[in-house]
Amino acid sequence: MNNLRKGSQKKDIERNGLKVSLHENSSFRIKERILPVLFGEMLPEKAILKSQQEAAKAELFIVLGSSLRVSPANYFPLDAKENGAKLVIVNMERTDFDHLADMVINNRFISEVLQELL
Question: What fold, for 10-36+47-117?
Answer without folding.
Answer: Rossmann fold (3.40.50)
